[in-house]
């Protein structure tokens, strides 16, 4: 039986187009945009000047003058408006593409593989969103979105968390550095390219070996919510930044000290079962 497609309404597209689109994105975002080949994608993000993550996204380079930012959870209008303030004399247009819809499916795409996109004649763009936990495809298309399926949507989000891709609600934006969110695992930021907002903080933390906190993955039978404090006995050592319930279990990502107890941790009284983060989602 073929896996069913389902809508991903929390995934939205902001398009950058024009002669300076790539140069602008390279100067603003934390990944190596100029080095990305046309027809490929990578994880990226936008930081505050203090190096805190405003938004995470998949950055798709359709051609040398067209980029799509596949935002997860962030408000696309708010994001585009904030980004527009930095355009100045650059020759590009920033647009929220409400005509494009994201669809998920738990099987392998027929042509897209790894970081390589598949671009169809009708304008559909497919990504290989799979990893060690299994195959996934994500399709962006101008056609109407697939039907909503809450269970499959939750399973998709739980897959993201299991592979160390944090899903950041508004309360968690501008709170964490890329290192605290372990985004090196996704190759989502660069410490070698030129300046971008927050670059000095990111590079200093990297080269001075000052990263002391990172992501940890937990499951629980009790409800877990974003903002819960994670405790080791009576001592609070971190907090939950992403949480979802899927297949009868709660799953969460928490920012904790890199050195922490492997057992006995709790979140507001709920027992936490630690799991290793899965790999294979880096692009």
From TrEMBL:
Record has Transit peptide as a keyword: yes
Record bears the keyword Transit peptide: yes
Gene3D superfamilies registered for this protein in UniProt: 2.40.30.160, Probable tRNA modification gtpase trme, domain 1 (3.30.1360.120)
Keywords: Transit peptide
Domain of life of the organism encoding this protein: Bacteria
PANTHER family on file: TRANSFERASE CAF17, MITOCHONDRIAL-RELATED
Protein name (database record): Folate-binding protein
Organism: Luteimonas galliterrae
